[in-house]
Amino acid sequence: MIFVTIGSMFPFDRMIRAMDAWVLAEGQGEEVLAQIGAGDYEPRHMEWVRKLDRPAYGAAIRRSRLVVAHAGVGSIVTAGENGRPIVVLPRRAHLGEHTSDHQVETVGWLREKPWVHVADDEAALPGRIAAAIAASAAGERMGRTADPAFIDRIRRFIAG
Amino acid sequence: MRKVMAVASGGGHWVELRRIMPAFAGTDVFYVSTEAAADADLAPARYYAVTNVTRKSHFAFAHTIREIWRIVRAERPEVVVTTGAAPGFVAVVLAKLLCRSRTVWIDTVAHTEGMTLSGRLARPFADAWLVQWPHLARPGGPEYWGAVL
């Protein structure tokens, strides 16, 4: 199952439309569930809900093999902790999708993580979804511990 | 062997602390959190449970301060590492004042647009005052050393 989430109630129709188009074009036979919040666009080719409560959200992530989400930290952390690869599309302020472009900054730093796949715009989504599924099949997961360089820096501080 | 107090509230903060546990290898580490029982894999490290606090309950907060005071006095940690929130703040303050411990505040990765309230309050007591997002680091302000992700 592919779980699509906009992460909050704040609409993100650009992503929902793009995913609906992806299901029609490429995702036939794949179970897709979208959490669309307060968006105006109602998907025609995938199952959708407005909002999931926390237990249902966690269950959807665990049931999925791939998460496609806005570039929100909550979605990224939850996917990572559950060992699920994630494709993220940053919300853009000039399209009215958020109050600032901080999600663009978020993805700038996450780009190097092998389990995070960044689609800079909706046109890049299909390619990133294919790459994420391939990387996942190759065993790329969030590691069980923090970034080794970070751990090393804390270890050196402790040693004093 | 350095004595390290590793402290975090339960839930997400604890998950973040667990992800830096390899940094405590080769130290005399003990853990403090708000879950009644220790995770099965923490042993042989010592584990202390403290009362969970929310900003709404002043009584519980006073109780938690007393509990952490007792732990700090008994253990006298040389270093405190915390990923927040309220119990971590209390630990950093008390260990700094009572034991002159060296302290590390790691603000939660869940905050991307600024530091948490506990994190801002911890500043005068934190020797390493860290954020987990590069764009939140400032010269003379919080530092970015990396992230638990």
Strand content of chain B: 15-25%
CATH architectural category of chain B: 3-Layer(aba) Sandwich
Determine Rg of chain B (CA atoms, Å): 14 Å
Shape of chain B from CA axes? globular
What gross morphology of chain A would you assign?
globular
Query: Roughly what percent helix of chain A?
Result: 40-55%
Main sheet of chain A: which strands, in order across?
3-2-1-4-5-6
Give start-end ranges of low-pLDDT stretches of chain B. Answer: none
Low-confidence stretches of chain A: none
Span between N and C termini of chain B? 28 Å
Task: Please give the CATH class of chain A.
Answer: Alpha Beta
Task: Tell me about the largest β-sheet of chain A.
Answer: 6 strands, parallel
Distance between the termini of chain A: 48 Å
Number of strands of chain A: 6
- What integer is the average pLDDT of chain A? 91
Which chains share the greatest interface?
A-B, 28 and 30 residues
Structure commentary:
The complex is a heterodimer of chains A (160) and B (149). In chain A, 41% of the residues lie in helices and 14% in strands. Chain A has 160 residues and is an alpha/beta fold. In chain A, helix 1 (13-25) links the parallel strand 1 and strand 2. The mean pLDDT of chain A is 91. Chain B is of the alpha/beta class. Chain B has four helices and seven strands. Chain B has helices at residues 12-18, 58-75, 86-99, 117-122; strands at residues 3-7, 28-33, 46-49, 79-82, 102-106, 128-131, 143-144. In chain B, strands 3-2-1-4-5-6-7 form a seven-stranded parallel beta sheet, with helices on one face. The longest helix of chain B is centred in the middle third of the chain and has 18 residues, at 58-75. Chains A and B meet through helix 3, helix 4 and helix 6 of A and loops of B.
